[in-house]
Write a structure and sequence with these properties.
This protein is of the alpha/beta class. It has a five-stranded mixed β-sheet with strand order 2-1-3-4-5. A hairpin with a 2-residue loop joins strand 3 (86-91) and strand 4 (94-99). It has helices at residues 2-8, 10-30, 51-62, 72-80, 104-126, 150-180, 182-187, 193-223, 231-253, 259-276, 304-312; strands at residues 40-44, 66-70, 86-91, 94-99, 324-328. The termini are far apart. It has eleven helices and five strands, in the order H-H-E-H-E-H-E-E-H-H-H-H-H-H-H-E.
Length: 340
């Protein structure tokens, strides 16, 4: 009965079966380039470039960092418009690196690469061996490297289907049945209640499995995404996840008298879950200074680089000044006093 009612609702079938595939194809095609945008730094042209400038430029190129060499006036104009994440300029016998407080995610990663390039350039100029860096390789726990953004998007869509099928579909349907008096009509029929409940559970589970199979098939045929683990374990996890969210749906449907009321309650629970996981905090939110040293605090800093720098830097500046200084732009106050 559930499948017959579901198959008659073309709109529900579209949003359940076709819309996740459209999202996968759309975003997977838009962000198909796995390399992503390159980090860039604006380099203010020196009045009289010397060997140190040439060595630094070569080291920056070796790190595949996009360098935009601009005159000082043009560089300052870009900085004033907020178009620059990191700006490198000569200062005394060394350099100064300015970071845009509104683009700290890009600026923080760029600062790390610029400092690496500076160490390499110093070693080359002095004839010393270049500093050895730890090689970095991004791969999944299955030791397979993702080829595109769709490999990251596909598991998220599978989880999103579990939430929508259990939390929204089950609860909304039950509230609608109660509004229309269908439960009263079913109560006078010889149909046992447990069979009706089992039918809803089996229907949602089968829909979830079909959804997952379609997404996995499209991901494999279009983007070459293969399951790196066991399909049996994946099926078990999806069944448990669907059951958990269905339990939430059944429980929340008892608190709502109308479909509109259930929509508000379910959205509140869903958004609360996202907020509790830290998804509601953007890179622009800074944790209060008094709580930054609190143990077990959430990572609300602007970027992982900022969090690492705040935890690893000392409260006092080193006695020996470094030629390359990293200076955040005005308006952003780190929890430490030294960023040199």
């Amino acid at each position: 009965m559930e499948w017959r009612l579901y198959s008659r609702d073309r709109v529900a079938m579209f949003w359940t079966m076709a819309f996740p595939v459209i999202l996968l194809l759309g975003f997977g095609t838009i962000f198909r380039d796995s390399g992503g945008p390159k980090l860039s730094v604006v380099r203010v042209l020196a009045a009289a470039p010397g060997p140190q400038d040439a060595a630094l430029d070569l080291a920056l190129a070796d790190l595949q960092l996009k360098v935009q060499a601009l005159p000082r006036a043009e560089a300052e104009a870009r900085w004033a418009r907020g178009e620059t994440a990191a700006q490198l300029e000569a200062e005394g016998g060394g350099y100064r690196l300015r970071l845009n407080s509104y683009l700290m995610a890009q600026a923080g990663a760029t600062a790390g690469l610029v400092n690496q390039a500076w160490l390499v350039a110093q070693a080359r100029l002095s004839g010393a061996p270049e500093p050895r860096r730890i090689p970095i390789q991004v791969e999944s726990p299955g030791r397979k490297r993702s080829a595109n953004y769709a490999a990251f998007l596909l598991p998220g869509l599978l989880g999103l289907n579990l939430v929508s099928m259990g939390l929204f579909s089950v609860g909304m349907v039950n509230v609608s049945y109660r509004e229309k008096g269908k439960f009263r009509r079913l109560a006078v029929t010889p149909l046992p209640k447990w069979i009706f409940l089992l039918g809803q559970v089996i229907h949602r589970l089968t829909v979830t499995v079909i959804q997952a199979a379609i997404l996995l098939l499209v991901g494999y045929l279009v983007f070459g995404i293969a399951n790196q683990g066991s399909f049996l374990e994946l099926l078990l996890v999806m069944a448990l996840g669907t059951g958990c969210f269905m339990a939430f749906g059944f429980a929340l449907s008892g608190f709502a008298e109308t479909s509109e009321g259930y929509a508000a309650i379910s959205n509140l629970v869903d958004l609360g879950g996202h907020w509790g996981q830290g998804q509601g905090y953007t890179g622009g939110l800074e944790y209060p200074c008094r709580l930054q040293s609190a143990p077990g605090r959430p990572s609300f800093s602007r970027s992982s680089w900022t969090s690492w720098a705040s935890a690893s830097s000392s409260r006092s500046c080193p006695s020996t000044p470094r030629p390359l200084r990293t200076i955040p732009a005005p308006g952003w106050r780190p929890s430490t006093t030294c960023w040199g």
